[in-house]
Amino acid sequence: MKRLCAFDIERDRKGEHLISAGWAIYTTDPEHPETGHCTAKEAGDLIEQLALADVLVGHNIVDSDIPFLLEHFPTTMQEALAGKVIIDTLPLSPVAFPHNPYHHLYKDYKPFPLAPNDPVEDSLESVQLMRDEGKELDKLPSEVRSVLLTLLGRYSRTSEVAAQLGGVPEALTQEQVLVAITRTWGPHLCTHALPAVLQQAWGDEMGAWALAVVLAWIYKDDGVSVVGQWPREQTPYVPQFLHDLRDTSCDDPSCAWCRASNPTAMTVESPVVLVRETADEQNFVALATLTAAK
Q1: Do residues 60 and 183 make contact, with C-beta atoms less than 8 angstroms apart?
Q2: pTM value?
Q3: What are the pLDDT digits (tens) for 251-274?
Q4: What is the pLDDT of residues 181-234, one digit of tens each?
Q5: Would 206 disulfide with which of 25, 130, 235, 241, CB 3.0-4.6 Å?
Q6: Can you give the three-state secondary structure of 255-290, one letter per residue?
């Protein structure tokens, strides 16, 4: 079994100085990892554990923990990271949990919200989050899961975690993804805009991740939740794809979403406008009034 090291570091409020670090080592017993803790002066202990591991796991380690450690311990960290599989649970969170406060770890160990973080507990929580993300993806219908994992596999920061969580044996082609999205998501997005959106996503790894985020949210759309701030801030593709697929009405009569979304385009032959789900009764009345005015 590969040696997995989950880790977390704690810094001062300015993020400039290391305070402490913690880790959890998983080898033969996934339920009883070996844990460790060190102070800033003992940071070499953490780096030693990273060097011994085959797989590194953490929450927001790619943009936060690892760059900090590389800056302060460049030589030893570069050696420790060489050849490692790195799994960051943060970018997978908005795909696995599109309606939850997914960019934070759940820190149930804290007696109150402002209590100090515990890097050992956070290390354990990151592994639990990885498992929970895998369980959520496993619950999805096979075609939905295949599409999302194919897109995640095209993004360097989620390709490893997608594979670790049991990605599809063979990634779908662009044409297969287009067919699958049209078949599964077709009634819930603009199928006229979809080919261009997929083409953009296919040519840019951040676009692939953004489309996975948007599709995961659309698939579980409850009429109340919105795509959170963190994914929107990572790449302009997220708000762009949301706009193109959900907020822009096309003139294609075969696009069920746009026919249902645009009351001014309704004719006698397209009464589907009146039965589209709305957020509340007031919106439905307004929709019916606009339709009657035509």
Answers
A1: no
A2: 0.82
A3: 899 999 999 877 454 433 333 333
A4: 999 999 999 999 999 999 999 999 999 999 999 999 999 988 888 898 899 999
A5: 235
A6: CHHHHHHCHHHCCCCCHHHHHCCCCCHHHHHHHHHH
